[in-house]
Amino acid sequence: MNQVAEPQVAQLEQAIAALLEVPPYGMDPAVRHDALLSLLKQGLQYACARNPQFANYLRYWPLPVSEAKSIAELPYLPVSVFKANPPLSLVPSSEIKRTLTSSSTSGQIPSRVVLDAATSRRMTKGVIAIIRDFIGAARRPYLVIDTQENLGRQAELGARGAAIQALGSFATEIVSCLRTDEKGDSALEFDKLRICAEKWKDAPVLVYGFTYVLWTQLIEPLRRRGMTLPMPNVHVLHSGGWKRLEQQAVTKDVFTSEVARVFGCPPERVIDYYGMVENVGVVYPDCERGYKHVPAFADVIIRDPLTLAPVRPGQQGLVQVCSVLPTSFPGFLLLTDDMGEIIGHDGCACGRRGTHFRFLRRVPKVEVRGCGNLETSRARRGAPA
Amino acid sequence: MSDLISRIASPSEITSAAQRLREAALEKSLPPATLLDVFEKWAAALDGHEVREIPGVTFLRLWLRRGTLEPILTRELGAEWLRGEWRDDGRARLQSFPLGVVGHWPAGNIEIQPILSLTCALLGGNSCLVRVPGGLVEPTRLIMEKLQHVDHDAQLLNRIFLASFDHSRTDAQEAMARAVDGAMIWGGEEAVSQVRALPFPHWARVVVFGPRLSVAAMDSATWGDSQERKAWCLRIARDVWQFDQAACSSPQTLFLERNGASDPAEFVEELKRAFAEENRAHPRQAIEPALTSSICRARASWLLDDLAHHAHFPASADWTILEGAGSQIPEPTQGRTLSVLVTDDLQQAICSFDGTVQTLGLAVKDREREEKLAEAAGRHGVDRVVRLGQMHVFGSPWDGMDLVRPMTRLVRHGRSQE
Asked: B296 contacts in A (CB within 8 Å)?
């Protein structure tokens, strides 16, 4: 690793820390853009100094970083590059504290990102700043719709574990309500739930689960038993995508109203958020208007798949996420495999400032695989990549 | 949906269409001369502005000409067949007859493939039942309308039934398979495997044109020649652009034989200009977001994998040149993404081919050298060796197989009396 980069790190650290201190949705968009542009440029230079392969990538980017006048002109990586093994890193292996892995629900190779202590700290701060804006700062009982195994600290942590643990700062106590039975399947602990519901019935409570886990492991078993968990002051957070539930024809509206019915809370307290392990420290909860907001230390750009240029609000395209938080891997500017739509760059009726957008869907796989497509068969035979 | 292409609601529509087609094929033969006449007129009619922009129509026009088809029919079926005569075979005589109804499952990525496929079977005297993939309905309709204009007595149209149904319609797929005497299947591995597994009659002849990729190669004398460089680069660009590089005949990799006197970077600069020029002339109108993702991934992975790798691309997903060294073909990306590899020895690169390469586009100065490279290519699974710039010219044989003869039966008549 190149020592020349070290003096930059302190400056970068300070600037990022300052952005983490301001209210996440209070900045003027133009001021925020300029601050982020400068920090992202520094981040890219820092990454180049630390990773020659990344520097090689930037060398061939059509526009030099120094000439970029907007975040959209800066070089971005496709998120799939984090499926490489070993994972892309900007720190020596001795400094890696944790590796986060994506859920890779479709049986694909999971992404892996490495975290050093500083990035890990910023990740926690980022998530806290965002979630606090939606549920308040107070600590409260935390009910996790998952097994105990996903609560412990591990060197390699999956997306579910990372999401669960990121909310731990809001907890006075943490209870998991799934257990793994003798067949290896997870089962709901009804008695434990009943006790929690009784004990916490008037308290503010935080509930978190992966969207499909929440539905299949909590809501459906409770419905089958005709059981509810009246906790009107609950906030139910969930993430992880809708693919599996869409296959079961469970719409977002049905999901939200059913979860709200089970907990006896208003539907606004059931909050879906979008996020990915590669975009550490940034999550995008739905606001009261149903839109996802970009915090002060991040940005979202929607790109036209044909031109890769940013599209105007209302047009659909590939989602690019941007963040100044990671310094242990080059996750500053990432083009995802998701489709989205910018709603506006400011002025959401919910009162939060800055860019707000809608997640639409994962990029659909190309149905037609023509006579020239050998990817599958060659890859299966272990052809050189 | 037009009259020319039927949207299938019930599998019985396919079964009854096949019955009509079989009667048309077997009750009366269509003289080759008549067929070639109509094809010639069809080729001429494909000059209209409505069809000119359909990718591959230029190749289709070339294919339909008598000058192209007569030599193919002579080679595959014999000069006597063209005259409607039997040919002697010792004391017996031989004549090719149609199988009857041939089913066609073209790939969804080549606009002209439904037409190319059906013409092969028509040339053998067959009737054709064609499943037109959803994305190809409009270009197929436009091309078929031109046939409608020139086939006044519906001599050919009576022998064609174009069907449109979703690929997941098992009932329709099975009805089609059960109704045919022969099948021509084109496409990627998944599609081909699914169609092959359909319940064809035990007598049906099934010909598969499965997934392949293609490669270009230039010897040091050719790419090092600064006078000719521009012309060659434009030819390569045209081969890459056609069918958005998704055809089995599309070059995915270009091997440049190392040349001590010339710098490959200069050649790549010229290639960049050619790509930019081709892109101006033939800009993409739309792209699958998944392909955009693949292109971005290919660019990043290439540059992150090896510090010796270079890449050249615009800010858009329009085209990409990945530059490096070696003799192994990288995983193809398509979408106008060409890997340019400098290699010490073309012969060695060709000898590492594993049977997946369909077409080798060559630019070699020395004739003897080229013949040796073609020999090596043939031994290592390549089915076509052509000049760079002509990689997509459709002809027989294709994928190492005749295109007309497999859908015919060779009937032997041993005379009962001497």
From this structure: 78, 308, 335
Q: What distance in Å separates the CA atoms of residue B332 and residue A345, rounded to the nearest whole number?
A: 38
B289 CB neighbours in chain A (<8 A) are 305, 317-318, 339, 363-364
DSSP state of B128: E
- Would you state the pLDDT for residue A11? 82
**Helix (H) and strand (E) counts for chain B?**
16, 16
Q: Which residues have CB under 8 Å from B231's CB, separation 6+?
A: none
Check if the beta carbon of residue B315 is closer than 8 Å to that of residue A309: yes
Give the largest CA-CA distance in chain B.
Answer: 79
Does B247 sit within 8 Å of A81, measured CB to CB?
no
| A132-159 pLDDT tens trace | 999 998 999 999 998 877 777 666 778 8
* Domain spanning B5-210+399-414, CATH architecture: 3-Layer(aba) Sandwich (3.40)
Name all domains of chain A by residue range, CATH numbers in brackets: 122-274 (3.40.50)
User: Which residues of chain A have a CB within 8 Å of the CB of B305?
Assistant: 53, 385
Q: Which two tokens stand for residue B64?
A: 């339909």
- Written out in words, the top-level CATH class of the domain with range B213-387 is alpha beta
Beta carbons of B186 and A57 less than 8 Å apart: no
ipTM attached to this prediction: 0.89
β-partners of residue B270 are none
> How much is the mean pLDDT over chain A?
87
